[in-house]
Design goal:
About 40% of the residues lie in helices and about 15% in strands. The chain is an alpha/beta fold. Bound molecules: pyridoxal-5'-phosphate (PLP).
């Protein structure tokens, strides 16, 4: 495989700064999956974004599908959201009493999220999930939890060497998406001790034929166990109301975060009023919940979604990208495939040997960067990607793949 560059592309300045960062900041930066790994091709730092494009520290431009790993759903520097933030900034960021925007946003969210009789705000997705788990345990007064997928670092199961005592991890069991029998078997023997089943839909497996969520809804009802959805990625992407709106299988509690404020740090947990009303008893509270800037950004974001057909756009552009990428993989004889639903398509490399698979993935991603396309393992389109941007992306990818397969 060749990694020859087709045009000059230097990320030297980025990597010099990264080497200093590694000395000063544990793990180099605060988000593990944002750490750069492909030295020489991948930018270590992004300094500016507009619409669907970003620019790195060395001045290279990329058509971006990382979108902050999900939160940018309308676009970078999206005018209506930035204007709402600017207007609120002129009046203050956060106060010692609630701001009316909290009520205005809640009014909107209970209309678009099927399970949301009541909502409440926090700053990160993981924190909102922790709140739901706490509420589920308070409501049922049962200790066990079944999880599926990533729910944020605070809620990860683990071993003592990851800092989690065995007594705590023994209460949490992680099961794979789609394996209904595994969930049924677990609940058969542990339902009386289980507070909730919590599911983050696996992007690569969801689709029109996937009936896992309706089945898990029926199963949890049969066993009298609460159902909680992590809609942190799927909310404001598959539908505004996430997988519960898409499938019609409505959980008891749910969390939303990425996408609800076009990048401002805001998360929401919501659900049945009788469970949500246990918030004071559970003592869930945070100083930064309900800062007016994030609320203003979210309100503007939700209104754009409601008036501009944002979800349709994400499906259309996502479909163009998915279809185009799969055609290109085929054209270049690359054993790769984009799967899942168009608003969050998952890119898989299917080379059987693990080392060869990793090499192919790295060579591809390096070539994408050199050709000005910035990708994560999920390719997130946003409302600012036009049909022309997708076409230009596919041209750049065509060149990138040719570089990878060239002898
Ligand atoms: C499905 C899912 N749940 C939870 C989280 C955690 O959210 P945060 O990083 O905001 O705590 C993430 C973040 O990537 C996620 O993708």
């Amino acid at each position: 495989m060749s990694i020859e560059t087709s045009h000059p592309h230097s990320v030297e300045e980025s990597w010099q700064l990264w080497r200093e960062a590694e000395k000063l900041i544990a793990a180099g930066t605060g988000t593990l999956s944002k750490r750069p790994t492909l030295e020489g091709d991948e930018p270590a730092y992004i300094v500016r974004g507009r619409g669907c494009r970003v620019w790195d520290l060395d001045g290279n431009e990329y058509i971006d599908y990382r979108n902050s790993l999900g939160p940018i759903t309308l676009g970078y520097c999206y005018p209506a959201v930035d204007e709402a933030i600017r207007q609120q900034l002129a009046n203050g960021i956060i106060f010692g009493h609630p701001h009316p925007l909290e009520v205005e946003l809640a009014r909107e969210l209970v209309q678009v999220i099927p399970c949301a009789e009541k909502v409440r705000f926090l700053k990160t997705g993981g924190e909102a999930m922790a709140a739901c788990i706490r509420l589920a345990r308070a409501y049922t007064q049962r200790p066990r939890l079944v999880t599926c997928g990533y729910h944020g670092w605070i809620n990860r199961d683990g071993t003592p060497d990851t800092g989690l005592p065995e007594a705590v991890s023994a209460l949490q069991t992680s099961l794979p998406y789609g394996d209904l029998d595994a969930f049924a078997e677990y609940l058969q023997s542990h339902a009386d001790e289980t507070a909730a089943v919590s599911i983050a839909a696996a992007y690569g497996k969801i689709g029109p034929e996937d009936d896992f969520l309706p089945k898990i809804r029926a199963l949890t009802e049969e066993h009298g166990v609460l159902l909680l959805y992590d809609e942190i990625v799927t909310g404001f992407r598959i539908r505004m109301g996430g997988m519960q709106e898409y499938t019609g299988a409505v959980p008891d509690l749910a969390t939303f975060a990425k996408g609800m404020a076009n990048g401002m740090p805001l998360s929401c947990y919501c659900g049945r009023a009788d469970i949500m009303d246990l918030v004071p008893r559970a003592g869930i509270s945070s100083t930064y919940s309900g800062d007016a800037l994030s609320l203003a950004a979210s309100l503007a974001t939700v209104r754009e979604y409601r008036t501009k057909g944002v979800i349709d756009h994400l499906w259309t552009r996502g479909e163009e990208l998915m279809t185009g990428m799969n055609e290109l993989f085929e054209k270049h004889g690359l054993d790769c495939r984009v799967v899942g639903l168009p608003p969050c398509p998952s890119i898989g490399v299917h080379v059987p040997d693990p080392v060869a698979r990793r090499n192919t993935q790295q060579e591809l991603w390096r070539a994408f960067y050199r050709n000005g396309v910035s990708l994560y393992t999920v390719a997130y389109v946003n409302f600012s990607h036009s049909a022309d941007d997708i076409a230009e992306t596919l041209e750049r990818m065509d060149r990138a793949m040719a570089e990878v397969v060239a002898p």
